[in-house]
Amino acid sequence: MSGSSNLDREDVLKIARLARLELDEAEVALYQDRLGRVLEYVRELNQVKTEKAATVKHVPRDAVSIREDRAIEFTDREALLRNAPAQIEEHFLVPTVIEQN
Amino acid sequence: MQLKEFTIERVIAGYRKQEFSPSELATSYLDAIEEQNGRLGAFLQVDRDLVLAQAAALDSRRQEVNKLPLFGVPIAIKDNFLVKNWQATAGSKILKGYVSPYTATCVEKLESAGAIIIGKTNLDEFAMGSSTENSAYFPAKNPWDTSRVTGGSSGGSASAVAAALAVGSLGSDTGGSIRQPARLCGIVGLKPTYGRVSRYGIIAFASSLDQVGPFGRTVQDVASLLEVISGYDRNDATSSRAIVPHYSDHLKGATLKNVRVGIARDWLEGVDGEVRKSFDEAVKLMIKDGAKIVDISLPHSRYALSTYYIIAPCEASSNLARYDGIHSGFRAEGVTDLDSVYFKSRGQGFGAEVKLRIMLGTYALSAGYYDAFYGKANEVRKLIQQDFLTAYEDCDCIVMPTSPSTAFKFGEKAADPIKMYTSDICTLPVSLAGLPALSVPCGLDSQGLPIGLQFIGKHFEESHLLKVAHKYELERGEFPLPAGVDY
Questions:
Q1: How many whole angstroms separate alpha carbon A85 and alpha carbon A97?
Q2: So what's the pLDDT on residue A4?
Q3: What is the pTM of this model?
Q4: Are B360 and A35 a contacting pair at CB < 8 A?
Q5: Which residues of B touch A96 (CB under 8 A)?
Q6: Closest Cα partner for B381 from A81, A78, A48, A82?
Q7: Terminus-to-terminus CA distance in chain B, angstroms?
Q8: Which of chain A's ends, N or C, has fewer CB atoms near its CB within 10 Å?
Q9: Cross-chain Cβ contact A63/B377 below 8 Å
Q10: Would A96 be classed as within a structural domain?
């Protein structure tokens, strides 16, 4: 279990882009190393024969029942809005997303 | 009054004898927390007004002590649970200042049973960690030795109970986050069967693994808390309708006679010498009391670490996509457009370990990799579970150490993720299989640090599991408190 050779800098930047995370240069190097180490480690699963898995039931999940899919109204709008970093009247406030002009 | 003496039973007895009122008891706990929290870092929020308002309401309902199982019992709650009007930061800067708009079902149940919510406890950010060093605020410290970690991620909840700053507490366990800190802090911690306790109102980490559970000084206390918080909840589609037994009543007359206890020998390799010795002594005690030891095999559990570190990050990357810098919590400064709100707020708001796991999950779920990672890991997960079900054909419960070594020093494992992840090597397979398990203290090492024994049960058979653990606990005798806890 060594090394980070299996991911290059561009891979890390691509993953960060998909995850909507801005990273500084030091972080790119850090994650290149750490992601590489973990991915190298978990590669051991490739050697596990899993054909029999198809016949196994997941017990706790099977114990779970299905209910009617019905929405319940949450009326405390204030409580939700006050947690937003920026709000105006009854709305979340975001920077302009449509180009002006 | 001596806080170190209190279990749930003793608090209730104190109220019955009118030795103190809920307000007096709550004030004593608040004072102790104020004095000790600087040393221990167990709590992220203690709000005197919110606590005393709950206690005052109970002062005028004193006659209900005979009806409410947790009347006036101070309980601490991990800060990834929503409790209306309290903060819920999940130990993250991205949720700094977030005030819960509603209360988690399990906490509502505690409140209905008369409990006093005494404070919100420290944790690894978004419950990702094994030491509480990943808290964005400050690390929680182990009451047995404050130069050492509490374990994690529910380190604050474990530290609070071990240091007698709460009678009991709640935590969440995704891969060992209740059992491992309980073990490192020398108390009892239970992860129930997946689906036993509603997850509604818990900040999600890995939804197919997350489970709520109690900490206490004794198995009896943990049983009393479990019977209050368990049960079906329409707000959690994965909560079970299985009936909730009176776990605490069932402990009476518990016996180990003819109980078949499974041990997986290959799991004991690589366990520290002192931990192994303590484990062997605990097993001897159980045999003396009539238990029958059965050798079992859990061959796929050796892949639990890899399986977990694919499944949990995949689910986390999806669950944590909701933190966008718009709806709640933190937004970075100097953002000019929507993309920069997302990228900068998430980049600055999440800590290093959380970003690592989000990226691991994002990578594993990205086009072309899904089957090779998430698909494969879910297949191995089923095989890990099947090994347990096969083992249970020959035994009634399984014992193994809760974790391979005692509490480590701050920073000791921080640089290498795999080294840190192996702290949970004994708890991860159980989480992947969705089984109930609890950690009970079974000894101290030569440095005076607690060692824990993990009891693992069958799905939804917490009742039997608690009985076995309770009987072991009686045979073991009283477990000491950390030296500094003398109040």
A1: 17
A2: 42
A3: 0.96
A4: yes
A5: 337
A6: A48
A7: 8
A8: C
A9: no
A10: no
Query: What is residue A64's predicted lDDT score, i.e. its pLDDT?
Result: 66
For residue B292, tell me if it sits in a domain.
no
Residues of A in contact with B376 (CB under 8 A): 45-46, 48, 50
Q: How many CA atoms lie within 13 A of B219 on its CB side?
A: 32
How many domains are contained in chain A? Answer: 1
The CATH number of whichever domain residue B239 belongs to comes to: 3.90.1300.10
Task: Give the span between the Cα atoms of B314 and B309, in whole angstroms.
Answer: 8
Size of interface A-B (CB pairs under 8 A): 173
The H or E element that residue B117 is part of is strand B116-121
Q: What is the pLDDT at residue A1? A: 31
Which residue(s) pair with B9 in the sheet?
none
Helices (H), ranges, B45-189 = 48-59, 105-112, 155-162, 179-185
- If one counts the domains in chain B, the total is 1
Query: Chain B within 8 Å of A33 (Cβ-Cβ)?
Result: no
Helix%, strand%, coil% for chain A, nearest 5 = 45, 5, 50
Is B27 contained in some domain? yes
Q: Which residues 9-48 in chain B show a CB within 8 A of chain A?
A: none
CATH number of the domain that residue A26 is part of:
1.10.20
Q: Are the C-beta atoms of residues B159 and B78 closer than 8 Å to each other?
A: no
Residue A64 domain flag = no
pLDDT of amino acid A63: 61
Give the pLDDT of residue A62: 59
Please check whether residue A30 lies inside any domain of the structure.
yes
A25 inside domain? yes
A26 has a chain B CB within 8 A of its CB = no
Tell me if residue B153 is catalytic.
Answer: yes
CB B133 within 8 A of CB B155: no
* pLDDT band, residue A61 (cuts 50/70/90): low
B42 belongs to a structural domain: yes
Range of the domain at A16: 1-50
B381 within domain boundaries: no
B131, B154, B172, B177: which one is catalytic? B177
Tokens in use for B91?
């130990």
The contacts found for B29-38 with CB under 8 angstroms, 24 or more apart, are B29/B3, B29/B74, B29/B118, B29/B165, B29/B166, B30/B118, B32/B3, B32/B164, B32/B165, B32/B487, B33/B118, B33/B119, B33/B165, B35/B487, B36/B163, B36/B165, B37/B165
Q: Is the pLDDT of residue B267 over 50?
A: yes
B177 noted as active-site residue: yes
Q: What is the ipTM of this complex?
A: 0.92
Put simply, whether A67 touches B (Cβ < 8 Å) is: yes
